[in-house]
Amino acid sequence: MVLLVLFVFFAMTSSAFLKITNLINVARQISMLGIASVGMAFVLLLGGIDLSIGSVVTIVNIGIAWLMVKADVPPVIACTIALVGSTTIGFLNGYIIAKVKMPPLIVTLSSMIMIEGFAYIICKGVPIFGFPKGFAFIGQGYIGPVPFPVIILIFILAIGAYILNKTYFGRYFYAVGGNEEASKLSGINVDRVKYLVYSLSGFFAGIAGIVMLSRTNSGQVTSGKGFEFDVLTAVVLGGVSVNGGFGRISNVVAGVLIIGILSNGLVLLNVSAYIQMVIKGAVLMSAVAFDCIQKNKKTTHAVN
User: pLDDT, tens digit, for every residue of 93-136?
Assistant: First the structure.
């Protein structure tokens, strides 16, 4: 309903909203958001959070750009190195959370700050550009009438849905998020589940970073700034509980579309960037409040 209302509202208030070029632009924008949202959905299902996603996108942007331009590394190898690195970052987050028992908020916040610092060290705050010509296809190319980033998004969403619905790992995500102690007693290796989930979050953030770099054709330290906020908002809007144990990839798609259309519509209406921040913050708070109210109702009903 929210998605439908937003679509109708912006269609009526902006003559440019329904133009094919604008809708294609929205599709490209949400592709990066949607790819990273799959990893964030896994993390929230576990009852955790990953604030390092935006910084991972940034370091992937800077790392690949530096490898291709400064070290003359072929794009395929540069992207592979970046994905290994982003997955390793996710694994380290999961390892510290599982073994040291630190709160996910603190671990991933610390990672976010450190990774962003490394990105500045690599490029010294200066954008890196001048990539091989074929690299732009990832973020700007088409297969038929469909933008290639949208095809990547559909593929990643399918993988995410398959993991949750068709594998025992997916069932473990729900079980650990629902009740970690009960999961341990039932024989689930909770630590390994956390390693896997945070590694996947880093991996999907890395893919989003590659698409973003190809789309902008410039490696910049601001590329992932605030990206984790949009991802978190989209996933929570899609019905994935911040308390863990509940959510579906199919609903996350709706959340991603809401954020994509909201951001695009506000820009078309020339709404100030500062007002957009207020609106997005209010949307996130409302979504989390709704989730908490629903949980309290279920708890009260169970007790009665």
Answer: 999 999 999 999 999 999 999 999 999 999 988 999 899 988 99
CA dist., res. 227 & res. 32, Å (int): 10
Q: Provide the pLDDT for residue 250.
A: 86
Q: Indicate the angle between helix axes 249-268 and 148-166, nearest 10 degrees.
A: 150
- Set out the domains of the chain in order of their start, with CATH numbers: 2-303 (1.10.3470)
Judge contact between 25 and 19, C-beta under 8 A. no
Contact between 233 and 283 under an 8 Å Cβ cutoff? The reply is yes
Q: How far apart are CA 122 and CA 294, in angstroms?
A: 45
How many whole angstroms separate alpha carbon 86 and alpha carbon 150?
Answer: 21
- Beta bridge partner(s), residue 143: 146
Burial of 233 per CB tally in 10 Å (0-12, 13-18, 19+): buried
| Partners of 88 in the β-ladder | none
